Input
Amino acid sequence: MKHLSLKSPSLKEKLLEHSIRPTAQRLAIADFVLQKGRHSTAEMVQEHLKKFFPHISLATIYNTLNLFSKKGLLKEYRFPHSGHVFFDNNTQPHAHFLDENSQEIYDVPMEKVNISLKNDSFEIQDVEVLFKGTLTNKGGQSG
Amino acid sequence: MKHLSLKSPSLKEKLLEHSIRPTAQRLAIADFVLQKGRHSTAEMVQEHLKKFFPHISLATIYNTLNLFSKKGLLKEYRFPHSGHVFFDNNTQPHAHFLDENSQEIYDVPMEKVNISLKNDSFEIQDVEVLFKGTLTNKGGQSG
DNA sequence: TTCTCTTTTTAGAACTATTCTAAAATTAGA
DNA sequence: TCTAATTTTAGAATAGTTCTAAAAAGAGAA
Ligand SMILES: [Mn+2]
Ligand SMILES: [Mn+2]
Ligand SMILES: [Zn+2]
Ligand SMILES: [Zn+2]
Output
């Protein structure tokens, strides 16, 4: 059984693999957005980080989230219920479900979604699918 | 063959049917967003209206677009490529196609889209589908 | 018509989310 | 160490939208 402190080095290595200097701020943001959060906004990052970096600048948070997106560690989404940009650590193609009660976003793997388009005038490169509704009693998240 | 000036009365009647007082500003906005434009932003409305109402307030434009949405004449959308809210005069369920060259939004009727979800934990009330890509040479719009 | 009350419009302030700026701090590495 | 490049920061700036409160317009009663 491996020691838990291995987690931290591997995060640093992940940043280095993507040519991102692993500064203290970036590691703290990465720990949250890549490992804890799934669909994080800058505000959520700031809220979570305030116990570790009470003076971190919002500019740093945005710089870092945008850098991670450019490097392929995150993917940006805008959802219809909020003006915030969401940064998704799932960079694979997948759909989303928005629970209209909690406003929570859940991942829906593409294997569970069947979508096709009868079409002759568009060349499709990407599809974004958002299901909206409510969680049933089971209420599980998948992804 | 009916006289063309019938178009204007019918717009006024449409507003009245939805309990919206047909003021001059609202009629001008309605003429654009309900008849000319398909996916209009406040900015597009302002740009189009400036020859008729060079001093119309942005507050009036937003008030009116939001009122029309509340009354069911328009439906609000946010798309991933822009921070603007788009007001769609097609209030029926349908999908969208975003041309990544022109940033233009096209309607895709649901009859052309086949979508289903293998799922046991969500109760789906609505689905938003956005196809992204480029127009082929034919490049027709449908809706 | 005029009076009165309500609704609508307006200019500009305020607000929210994000980006920019330029100076200070940190870092890498010669 | 020294130096140059990178990163972080606070605060200003920007973009899109909503709010405020006063002026204008409209509807209906008298
Ligand atoms: Mn917020
Ligand atoms: Mn704009
Ligand atoms: Zn996701
Ligand atoms: Zn549409």
Chain A has two domains: 9-78, 92-142. The interface with chain B takes residues 76-80, 83, 95, 97, 99-100, 106, 108, 111-136, 138-142 of chain A (CB under 8 Å). The pocket of zinc ion (ligand 4) is lined by residues B 39, 88, 90, 94, 96, 107 (CB under 6 Å).
